[in-house]
Amino acid sequence: MRILIPAINNNDPPAAVALRAEGLEPEVWNVGINAKAYSKILFEYWNDHEGFIVVEHDIIPWPGALEKLWACKQLWCGHSYPLHAQGLFGGYLGCTKFSAELCDTYPKVMNRAWEESWQKIDGYVLTELRKLTGNDCFHLHFPPCAHIRELPKLSEMNKRLLNETLPPSPNIPGYYKKLMGK
Ligand SMILES: [Zn+2]
C-alpha cells in the first residue's frame, strides 16, 4: 500500500503519527515550499503506475480504514470527513485512493493539473474524475475519518453551548443545587 501525505512543513504531521501507530509507512512530502508543490507531487504519484492513497496532513483515519480502501476493487475510493462544521465532505483529497488501474485508465487527469495551486487541485481532480468516470463521487466507505482542523470550531461550539446553558456569572454550587432541586 502506497500512502502519500502532503505536509505543510517539515514537522511530523498528525496523519503520519496515526498511520505509523498501526504499522503503516506513509510517505510524507513537504508541499509547503511553494504553491504548486502539492500538485506536482500528485502528478509524480499518478504517473508511477502503482496506485496510491492520499491522506492530508490533518486527517486521522481510524485503524484499518486505509486497508479497506486498498482492498476494495473499486478504482476510486475514499472516506468522508467533517469540514467547516457544516457536515461530511468526500470526494476531495482528504482520504482518497486512486488505484493503479484508475491512474492508467485516465493518464491525462494530472497533465494540466500539475500547474494548479494547492488551493485548486482538489476541486480540479474531482471535476476531471466526475467527467471521465461518470460518477459524482468516489466509492464512499464508512465510517468517516476525523479531521483535526475541526477541533477549534468544536471547542467554540462547546463554549457557546455552555454560555447559553449557564447563568452569565454562574454561582456553580448554587446552580447545581438549583438543578438538583435543593
Ligand atoms: Zn471502495
Question: Mind explaining what this structure looks like?
Answer:
The chain has 182 residues and is an alpha/beta fold. The chain has a single domain, classed as Spore Coat Polysaccharide Biosynthesis Protein SpsA, Chain A (Alpha-Beta Complex), CATH 3.90.550.40. It is 41% helix and 19% strand. The protein has eight helices and ten strands. It has helices at 14-21, 37-46, 65-71, 100-105, 109-113, 118-133, 151-165, 172-179; strands at 3-7, 27-30, 52-55, 59-60, 76-79, 81-83, 87-89, 95-98, 139-141, 146-147. The strands form three sheets. The protein has a six-stranded mixed β-sheet with strand order 2-1-3-8-5-9, with helices on both faces. Strands 4-10 form a two-stranded antiparallel ribbon. A two-stranded antiparallel ribbon has the order 6-7. β1 (3-7), α1 (14-21) and β2 (27-30) form a beta-alpha-beta unit. The longest helix is centred in the C-terminal third of the chain and has 16 residues, at 118-133. It is globular and about 55 Å long. The model is unreliable at 166-173 (pLDDT under 50). The site of zinc ion has 5 residues, from β9.
How many separate domains make up the residues?
1
Estimated share of beta-strand residues: 15-25%
Report the CATH topology name: Spore Coat Polysaccharide Biosynthesis Protein SpsA, Chain A
| Span of the ends, CA to CA | 61 Å
Q: Figure out the total of helices.
A: 8
CATH-derived architecture = Alpha-Beta Complex
Q: Which spans of ≥5 residues are poorly predicted at pLDDT below 50?
A: 166-173
Which series of helices and strands comes N to C? EHEHEEHEEEEHHHEEHH
For the sheet with most strands, the description reads:
6 strands, mixed
SS elements, strand count: 10
Task: Quickly name the level 1 CATH class.
Answer: Alpha Beta
How large is the radius of gyration? 20 Å
What characteristic shape results from the CA principal axes? globular
Ligands: zinc ion
* Helix-residue proportion: 40-55%
Structural class: alpha/beta
Q: Mean pLDDT score, rounded? A: 85
- The strand line-up of the biggest sheet is 2-1-3-8-5-9
